[in-house]
Amino acid sequence: MSMEQMFPVILLLGLLSVAVVSDLRRHRIPNVLVLLGLALGLASQTYSGGGDGLLDGVLGLLVGFGLFLPLYALGGMAAGDVKLMAMVGSFLDPNLAMWAAFFSLIAGGLCGFLLMLARGQIAQTFKRYWLMLKAFTYLAPAEDEVAGKPFPYSVAILLGTLFISYFRFFS
Q1: pTM of the model
Q2: DSSP per residue, 74-136
Q3: Does the pLDDT of residue 1 top 70, yes or no?
Q4: What is the rounded distance in angstroms from the CA atom of residue 31 to the CA atom of residue 109?
C-alpha cells in the first residue's frame, strides 16, 4: 500500500484520536473537529476517486449517520457520537461505513460489558434487564449502576474503525 493510500487512514485515525481525548476529558466531541473531518474525508474521497469517490464519501457519511441516528433518538448515545460516525463514513464507501458502524457497536457492547465487569455489576444489570423483559417496561438503572453513567462512545468508534481499517488495508 502506498503512502498516498495510507494518508486518509492516518488522517481519520488522528481525527478520531483527538475526538477520544476530548470525549474522555469533557464528554464532548467538538463540532469543529467533526466538520473538519467531514471536509477532509470528502476531499480525500474526491481526490482519489473523482466524482465517484465523492459520491462514495457522501453515501458513507449518510450510512454512518443513518445507522447511529436511531440510537440517539432512543437515548442510547449522544449527538456527537452520531456526527462522529458520519465523519468516519465520509472517509469510506457505504459498505465499509456499514461495517465500521457494526464493529463500533460491537466494540461499544464489549466496552460496556467490561465496565460492568470491572465494577462488579454484571449480576445487578442483568437482573434489571430480566425484570424489564418480564414486566415489558423500562426500569432506570440504580444511581450507582454503571449502565446509567455517560459512556465515551468515541472510544468504541475508534476501535471499530481501527478494526475495519486493519482488514481493509493489511489483510
Answers
A1: 0.90
A2: TTSS-HHHHHHHHHHHHTS-HHHHHHHHHHHHHHHHHHHHHHHHHTT-HHHHHHHHHHHHHHT
A3: no
A4: 25
